[in-house]
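Input (structure):
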């Protein structure tokens, strides 16, 4: 008699499988019991409560020290006092944004500040101070000067002019200049002058003592050795800087340079 066919063997295997129940993989996918769910839920609650206690209730993760970096003119103590870090408070409760706002509001010299948590007990205050690119005589306080940064922000009043920082003089001594001052406003003219200062060649910037602003398009520089540079407006600053460098090399003994129209520069005097 012929042996069982492949079809017959397949039918027998299916019958045996059905008698022995579902495969092991299917048996392992049974739904968890109510007891298992309750136990898991309790564990999650305990873990959550423990985490909250660790962050807020324990003494392990609390502010114990405050460090400051990046100060130059200001002292670390001034920054810490302005920040008012709540020493002893839970680390997680420290409001970094509010702290940064307080520092910038109380210390205008600060350009940027970053509050960093240094777990488990430290708060770091990383600050960047504004640097003066120009100074202006304080009209309300004789003998004092106001520092102006690269954005035209007047951020501090000092008793003595910082060394190497040019003095800004607004001198609208003509009717047209006065009209320019009224039209653009003093703050706008200061920002334009800052743009000029930011475009000066390094050698020229080192020698610049005074930047005079008579109007929006009449800005000039007074350098060491009695030299004068007529710059004009703040427009085309890069081109003017390149032309001025070339002009000074070509006429090293000149005392008057005019780059207000960079395509037609001029120098004179000796």
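Output (sequence):
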């Amino acid at each position: 008699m012929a042996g069982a066919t492949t079809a017959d063997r397949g039918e027998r295997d299916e019958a045996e499988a059905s008698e022995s129940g579902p495969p092991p993989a299917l048996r392992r996918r049974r739904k968890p019991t109510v007891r298992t769910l309750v136990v898991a839920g309790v564990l999650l609650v305990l873990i959550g409560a423990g985490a909250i206690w660790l962050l807020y209730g324990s003494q392990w993760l609390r502010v114990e020290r405050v460090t400051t970096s990046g100060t130059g003119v200001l002292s670390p103590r001034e920054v810490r006092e302005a920040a008012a870090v709540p020493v002893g408070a839970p680390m997680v409760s420290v409001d970094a944004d509010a702290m940064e706002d307080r520092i910038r509001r109380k210390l205008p010299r600060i350009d940027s500040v970053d509050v960093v948590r240094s777990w488990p007990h430290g708060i770091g205050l990383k600050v960047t101070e504004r640097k003066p690119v120009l100074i202006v005589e304080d009209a309300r306080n004789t003998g004092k000067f106001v520092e102006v940064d690269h954005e035209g922000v007047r951020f501090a009043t000092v008793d003595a002019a910082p060394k190497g920082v040019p003095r800004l003089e607004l001198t609208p001594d003509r009717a047209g200049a006065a009209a320019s001052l009224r039209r653009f406003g003093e703050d706008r003219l200061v920002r334009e002058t800052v743009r000029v200062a930011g475009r000066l060649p390094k050698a020229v910037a080192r020698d610049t003592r005074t930047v005079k602003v008579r109007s929006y398009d009449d800005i000039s520089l007074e350098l060491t050795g009695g030299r004068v540079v007529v710059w004009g407006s703040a427009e085309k600053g890069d081109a003017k800087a390149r032309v001025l460098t070339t002009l000074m090399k070509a006429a090293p003994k000149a005392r008057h340079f005019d780059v207000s129209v960079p395509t037609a520069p001029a120098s004179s005097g000796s």
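Notes: The domain at 65-129 is CATH 3.10.20.310 (Ubiquitin-like (UB roll)). The two ends are 128 Å apart (CA to CA).
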